[in-house]
User: Which sequence fits this backbone?
């Protein structure tokens, strides 16, 4: 198979018009290595070297996949690649130059002269680790270090996100910056880490998009504040910083990870704990215990192996920015912080600047930037006038504007990348829209009106065309633009109420009142358990009346009981069920989680006993009341049934919870890096829990009920209990208990009840919620931030939320008419 890889590499290199020497110069892979790969002498190329060669050959996606597939074919066929033989003596024409030893990868394959890690932990070293390509097959021998695995996952995620956002199509919009005013910057002596009495000279940090990682490394304190007005490109700069930093990162440097800091409440959780929680949310596998008692995520944060890129300081709720800045100053963590200037300056005025942090301020786009970018975003015109372009009249009018007059609304609006991107979507990608209309100052008399026009037309424009397929491989049903605007408006309004930019599927129901959430959960649970009970009762007894009566009583009581449990567990505390960070492994018992079984046995037994006593007491009284009006008899039977059910349900719940704890094992470290995969993982976990819960709980209840009756026989009176009744109770209890647990105490169950049933039923969301979210993501309305979605920009979210509130007020106004 090595010969196949060599043939593919040689063919692609020749097609690119490069010699071996030219490819070596571009890729920093030695000529000797390339020659060895093409001739078959090198039989085990490192994946990072293959990816570097693919990058420098500028391969199309299909060609890249062909090269990478050839490189890993041996492993795919089930044969482990042979260990490389010792490096032969250098040939005369490949004689090593002085100092070449520094470029050798001391920890990798000695037969591969590709880019390697620095020989010593030196942050300023020029020997860096190449980026990981998200399109490449998984490395058959991934790194065992959790930080290195995280670096690969983060690289793959943000490369995909950069492609999705069309940052490189046709080329990135210029994002430039200048050093921020001194009032927003700490003392340069603190930034430069100088000793007392030393003279400090300010750094010249002016630069542009491709220089952000280098600019950051020039700051000794490794703390940087990025300021820019709305839509100026702060998030894109953060994305580019992460990718560039990872591409040139040394082994001793921390892994940059983007966190949307707008969701942080510094008054309830510390920064480090919040970072660990966010990391676990996006990468559930990092909830596994590390070397100590803490999780892998907490260990990475505490050991300084995470470089937080805190995006959106201005999105923190009003009143929390000052404590947030104070909390940031209480740490010495290296970090990058982005914010709008006004919000950051207000927080600084209340407390202090970010300690030891340099600050840069993004500048506006120029007319030359627009002239270079916008014409290249349109379709090529016909052959009659190849130089014509729809943007030419607009650009000409902007250039002819007298310099002594204020900028026109269009010239003001097109100074930010966000508005340029919206204008491009509406007018470049849609041939029947003429951008010249943007020059109409009577229609658009102010920049605000023009911005509202672009935001208003963005949703109808992107929903004009039907997408051919979803990321899951299915076909798109298509969504009407007006309906999509309504659903997106509800989601934006939902986020505004929660004061967070994160659109998390397990919190969709939190937009409802607490009482509504509890009531809906209880009612749907009652219907589900009542239906199961009625069907089983009818199948056993064959009597419709008896089945309906039994289903009504059991369903009502189960709804009340489980509704109360849900209220007590989540609603009363203002919390929601969080996605599980574990899975169940049925084939063996993992020792890492055995310690949870004991507490769960105690908690489950107590909870089950209370629930069972209440359930038995009520059922006993209801059934007795149907045959007698003797109050003492009704209470006596209720107490006896409560005692029996309480003991049986207590033992069954405790043993079932204990078994679930014994079977739990952490998720894979590379699992769940997007909303769909996290939802799918949790659905699988809950399904497995049901498969364990129902038979275990049902068997213990069925068998235990007979044992309990025998033990209590005589001491509380004569008891009648048949094997058939025990079996029926076991089946109904197993299924009902499993359904109740899933719908009330798991994130996926709450998603099913509220987001898949109630919200679509009331018109707030579509029935195909996941498909709709993925469709909005592919159209550029939403973006992915790990396990959650976010709106493309906070400005778009605010606009949609405002439109939704206006529509809701209008509907309320006209409803009585």
Assistant:
């Amino acid at each position: 198979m090595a010969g196949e890889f060599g043939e593919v590499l040689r063919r692609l290199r020749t097609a690119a018009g490069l010699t071996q020497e030219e490819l070596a110069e571009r890729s920093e892979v030695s000529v000797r290595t390339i020659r060895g790969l093409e001739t078959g002498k090198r039989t085990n190329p490192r994946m990072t070297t293959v990816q570097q060669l693919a990058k420098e050959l500028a391969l199309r996606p299909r060609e890249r996949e062909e090269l990478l597939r050839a490189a890993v074919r041996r492993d795919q066929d089930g044969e482990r690649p042979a260990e490389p033989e010792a490096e032969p003596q250098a040939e005369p024409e490949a004689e090593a130059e002085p100092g070449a030893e520094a470029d050798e990868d001391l920890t990798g394959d000695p037969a591969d002269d590709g880019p390697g890690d620095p020989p010593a932990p030196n942050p300023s070293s020029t020997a860096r680790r190449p980026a990981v390509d998200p399109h490449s097959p998984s490395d058959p021998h991934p790194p065992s270090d959790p930080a290195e695995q995280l670096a690969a996952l983060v690289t793959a995620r943000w490369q995909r996100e950069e492609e999705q956002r069309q940052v490189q199509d046709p080329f990135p919009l210029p994002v430039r910056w200048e050093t921020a005013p001194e009032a927003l910057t700490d003392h340069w002596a603190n930034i430069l880490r100088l000793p007392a009495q030393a003279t400090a000279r300010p750094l010249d940090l002016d630069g542009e998009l491709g220089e952000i990682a280098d600019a950051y490394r020039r700051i000794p304190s490794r703390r940087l504040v990025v300021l820019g007005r709305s839509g100026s490109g702060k998030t894109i700069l953060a994305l580019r910083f992460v990718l560039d930093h990872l591409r040139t990162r040394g082994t001793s440097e921390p892994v940059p990870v983007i966190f949307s800091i707008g969701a942080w409440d510094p008054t309830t959780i510390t920064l480090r704990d919040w970072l660990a929680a966010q990391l676990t949310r996006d990468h559930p596998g990092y909830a596994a215990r590390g070397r100590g008692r803490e999780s892998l995520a907490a260990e990475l944060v505490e050991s300084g192996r995470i470089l937080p890129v805190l995006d959106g300081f201005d999105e923190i709720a009003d009143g929390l920015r000052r404590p947030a800045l104070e909390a940031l100053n209480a740490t010495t963590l290296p970090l990058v912080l982005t914010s709008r200037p006004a919000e950051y300056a207000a927080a600084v005025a209340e407390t202090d600047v970010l300690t030891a942090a340099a600050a840069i301020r993004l500048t506006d786009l120029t007319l030359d930037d627009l002239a270079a970018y916008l014409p290249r975003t349109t379709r090529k015109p016909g052959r009659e006038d190849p130089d014509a372009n729809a943007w030419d009249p607009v650009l000409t009018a902007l250039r002819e504007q007298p310099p002594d007059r204020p900028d026109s609304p269009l010239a003001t609006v097109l100074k930010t990348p966000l508005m340029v991107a919206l204008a491009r979507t509406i007018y470049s990608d849609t041939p029947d829209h003429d951008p010249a209309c943007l020059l109409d100052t009577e229609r658009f008399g102010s920049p605000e009106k023009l911005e509202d026009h672009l935001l208003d037309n963005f949703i109808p424009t992107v929903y004009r065309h039907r997408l051919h397929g979803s990321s899951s491989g299915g076909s798109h049903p298509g969504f009407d633009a007006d309906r999509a605007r309504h659903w997106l408006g509800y989601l934006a309004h939902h986020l505004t109420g929660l004061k967070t930019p994160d659109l998390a599927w397990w919190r969709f129901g939190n937009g409802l009142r607490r009482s509504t959430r509890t009531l809906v959960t209880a009612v749907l649970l009652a219907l589900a358990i009542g239906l199961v009970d009625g069907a089983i009762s009818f199948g056993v007894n064959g009597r419709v009346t008896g089945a309906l009566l039994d289903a009504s009583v059991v369903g009502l009581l189960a709804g009340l009981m489980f509704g109360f449990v849900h209220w007590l567990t989540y609603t009363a505390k203002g919390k929601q069920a969080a996605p599980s960070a574990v899975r169940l492994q049925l084939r063996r018992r993992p020792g890492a989680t055995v310690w949870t079984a004991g507490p769960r046995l105690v908690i489950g037994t107590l909870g089950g006993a209370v629930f069972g006593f209440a359930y038995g007491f009520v059922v006993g009284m209801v059934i007795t009341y149907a045959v007698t009006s003797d109050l003492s008899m009704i209470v006596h039977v209720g107490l006896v049934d409560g005692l029996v059910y309480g003991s049986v349900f207590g033992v069954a719940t405790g043993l079932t919870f204990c078994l679930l704890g014994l079977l739990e094992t952490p998720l894979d470290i590379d699992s769940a890096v997007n909303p769909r995969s996290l939802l799918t993982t949790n659905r699988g976990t809950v399904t497995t829990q049901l498969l364990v819960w129902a038979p275990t709980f049902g068997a213990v209840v069925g068998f235990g009920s007979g044992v309990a009756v025998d033990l209590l026989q005589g001491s509380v009176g004569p008891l009648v209990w048949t094997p058939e009744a025990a079996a029926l109770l076991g089946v109904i209890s197993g299924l009902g208990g499993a359904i109740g647990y899933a719908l009330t105490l798991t994130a996926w169950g709450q998603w099913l009840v509220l987001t898949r049933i109630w919200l679509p039923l009331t018109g707030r969301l579509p029935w195909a919620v996941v498909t709709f979210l993925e469709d909005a993501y592919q159209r550029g309305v939403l973006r992915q931030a790990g396990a959650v979605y976010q709106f493309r920009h906070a400005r778009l979210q605010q606009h949609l939320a405002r439109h939704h509130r206006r529509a809701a007020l209008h509907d309320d106004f006209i409803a009585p008419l």
Remarks:
- The two ends are 76 Å apart (CA to CA).
- The longest helix spans residues 675-712.
- Confidence is low (pLDDT under 50) at residues 74-142, 471-475, 588-595, 812-817.
- The first strand starts at residue 176 and ends at 179.
